[in-house]
Amino acid sequence: MDKMKENDKHHLNAKNFQILAILYPDELHFLQSVARSIHIPANTAVIEEGQDNQQLYLVKSGILHVSKKHHDFTFEIGSITPGEVFGEASILFHEPAGASVHTVEACELYAIDISYLQEIIQDNSRFNYAIHQLAERRSVAGTLAINPVFSNLPQAVREVMLYNGEYTTSEKGDVLFYEGDTTTEFLYLILSGHAQVSMQHPSNHDKKVVFANLTPGDEVGELAIITHKPRAATVTATSTLRLFKISLQSIHPWMLRYSDFEHALRHGVQKKLQHNLEALRQKD
Q1: How far is CA 20 from CA 27, 112, 113, 197, 245, in A?
Q2: Which residues touch 205 (CB under 8 Å, ≥6 apart)?
Q3: CATH of the domain at 217
Q4: Cys staple from 70: which of 202, 217, 263, 266, with CB 3.0 to 4.6 Å?
């Protein structure tokens, strides 16, 4: 029995899991000693979106699907296959899981508790970089897949965006941009956290009108590319935000080339302007 368990541990190596190739031999041996081999039946949730996940999972066999909620809808955003890992984002960013992962068929996984990974992540800069890069790109890919505007771009374009965009963080109370700002170089995709969109009341400067509360998957700042006017509202972080910045200059060619994307962008802007107008009327 012990020998069978030991042989099973040897599958947790750089040959079967590419990300482990960055580890030093003593680090790999340590993870082999603490990893738990678990069997998950088909059609079973391993991680639920919003869950406080404290495990890194490595897939030995089987296929899993990843889904993510946006407003009232749930989207299938990808698959995880043998040799891949998941659960890294909630561990690295110290936030609830941003997506759900469930098995399609029976799966064999390795589970490693975060407490065993913390020292390795801190001491091994190459492993730290690789797992952060994986988490960031997955986070952006999932957000692009559920966003009603950017999901209209071809998959190949969205993959290029992962390399050309910029990741940034804002703390609670930070202002992404102010109403009337003329600097309109970027729009933002919210990867995690929340923000508030507001405008000074047109007839009472001591009041503000709140138009919307933004959540992961929402875009903000796109009105500038359509209206060619200064920022129409102030956007303030109401929690810590992880954001993906996209240059507005890169959006013009996509609008010219992909009609579905242009239509979705213009339709989204029209809906927001109508919503803002109705909010102002209700405050009068």
Answers
A1: 9, 13, 16, 43, 30
A2: none
A3: 2.60.120.10
A4: 217
Tens of pLDDT, residue by residue over 104-116, are: 999 999 999 999 9
Domain termination residue (choose one: 87, 121, 146): 146
Same-domain pairing of 91 and 60: yes
pLDDT tens-digit profile of 223-267?
877 888 888 889 999 999 999 999 888 888 999 999 999 999 999
pLDDT of residue 44: 98
Q: Which residue do the tokens 């889904």 mark? A: 67
Q: Token pair for residue 126?
A: 């190459």
- What is the rounded average pLDDT of the residues 86-101? 93
Domain final residue pick, 113, 146, 179:
146
The domain in which residue 9 lies consists of 2-146
When divided into structural domains, the chain yields a total of 2
Q: Which two tokens stand for residue 17?
A: 């899991």
pLDDT at position 284: 58
CA distances from 220 to 152, 159, 183, 191 (A): 17, 20, 14, 12
Are residues 187 and 229 both part of a single domain? yes
Q: What DSSP letter does each residue of 15-36 carry, written as one string?
A: TT-GGGGGS-HHHHHHHHHH-E
Q: Are residues 158 and 271 in the same domain?
A: yes
Instruction: Identify the residue whose tokens are 């589970």.
Output: 111
Phi, psi (rounded to 5 degrees) for 218: -85, 150
pLDDT, averaged across the chain: 89
- Are 200 and 231 members of one domain? yes
Residues 220, 240 within the same domain = yes
For residue range 140-198, list pLDDT tens digits in order. 999 999 999 999 999 999 999 988 889 999 999 999 989 888 877 888 999 999 999 99
Query: Tokens standing for 60?
Result: 């030995």
Same domain, 116 and 142: yes
